[in-house]
Design goal:
With 256 residues, the protein is of the alpha+beta class. The protein folds into two domains: 1-37; 43-255, Jelly Rolls (Sandwich), CATH 2.60.120. It has one helix at 2-38, and strands at 56-60, 74-77, 80-85, 94-97, 104-107, 115-121, 124-129, 131-148, 161-167, 173-180, 200-203, 210-217, 245-255. Strands 1, 2, 3, 6, 7, 8, 9, 10, 11, 12 and 13 form an eleven-stranded antiparallel beta sheet that branches. The chain has a two-stranded antiparallel sheet with strand order 4-5. Bound molecules: calcium ion (CA) (3 copies). Residues 106-107, 109-110, 112-114, 116, 130 line the site of one calcium ion (CA).
């Protein structure tokens, strides 16, 4: 009996001693879980910093990675950075676009927070797009881009479209291709996200190691379509020309 009591006392003492550290751990875990649960965006694997060959990484666009108001090079994750370019090719402002249903990285300025293409911009013929550039410290392969706000039927039977260009470590172009609902891995009738305006995963066909990518919009229907509302604008930023525009929801790639 005596031995039993002292055993109980020992257990109680241990519990009291451990109580503070145990409860702190519990609180910290709770906070972490709460943080994950409050995010409406898919939980991303943006903390994956392993660049060993064969490692597959998925990165989702997120407002949380933006610094300096989106100006200059933005670090998506260790070893992967990106930046925005304006219509005139100057360095722009990377934004997390939440104006419409599909949220993703876009470029501030022009008509929307999306990556916008224009034939006429501020009264001048430009035939140019805003762009997003992505830089990989270690080369990658098997790249899949998920685009958002890409209207499958908007403006042309082939809808809103864009294009991508891949570069090697010397900055030389190694491959290019198109982006649109037609090019989706799921087929043009299936969106990645239910009730989406246009989210499509698109696999890029590239044989050589990729060191950087450029993503931009084209005119409607791979440049075959005519824009709407050309040359109508209210003010410096209120251009109304409707052409292809989309954002970047996610990227998946494999370290080479
Ligand atoms: Ca824009
Ligand atoms: Ca549009
Ligand atoms: Ca669009």
């Amino acid at each position: 009996m005596k031995m039993k009591l002292s055993l109980i006392g020992l257990v109680m003492g241990l519990c009291l001693t451990l109580f503070a550290s145990c409860s702190e751990d519990a609180v910290e875990t709770d906070i972490q879980n709460e943080g994950e649960n409050t995010a409406n965006e898919p939980v991303d694997s943006n903390d994956d910093t392993v660049s060993d060959p064969g490692t597959t990484v998925t990165l989702n666009a997120s407002a949380s990675i933006l610094s300096n108001n989106g100006e200059g090079l933005q670090q998506w994750v260790d070893g992967v950075s990106l930046r925005a370019l304006n219509i005139d090719g100057s360095e722009g402002r990377l934004v997390f676009d939440t104006e419409f249903r599909d949220h993703g990285f876009g470029v501030g300025g022009a008509r929307w927070q999306q990556i916008d293409y224009y034939v006429m911009y501020q009264g001048q013929e430009v035939n140019a797009s805003e762009k997003i550039e992505i830089f990989f410290d270690s080369p990658v392969q098997n790249v899949v881009l998920t685009v958002g706000m890409m209207g499958a039927n908007e403006g042309h039977q082939d809808g809103e479209t864009g294009k991508w260009t891949a570069f090697n470590g010397n900055g030389a172009k190694i491959a290019e291709g198109v982006l649109g609902a037609n090019d989706s891995m799921l087929g043009r009738e299936v969106k990645s996200v239910e009730n989406s305006y246009g989210t499509y995963p698109i696999a890029l066909s590239i044989g050589d190691p990729v060191h950087s990518l450029q993503i931009e919009a084209t005119g409607f229907g791979y440049g075959e379509g005519e824009p709407k509302n050309v040359n109508s604008y209210d003010n410096d930023s209120g251009n109304k020309e409707n052409n292809s525009d989309f954002n970047l929801v996610a990227i998946r790639f494999e370290y080479r």
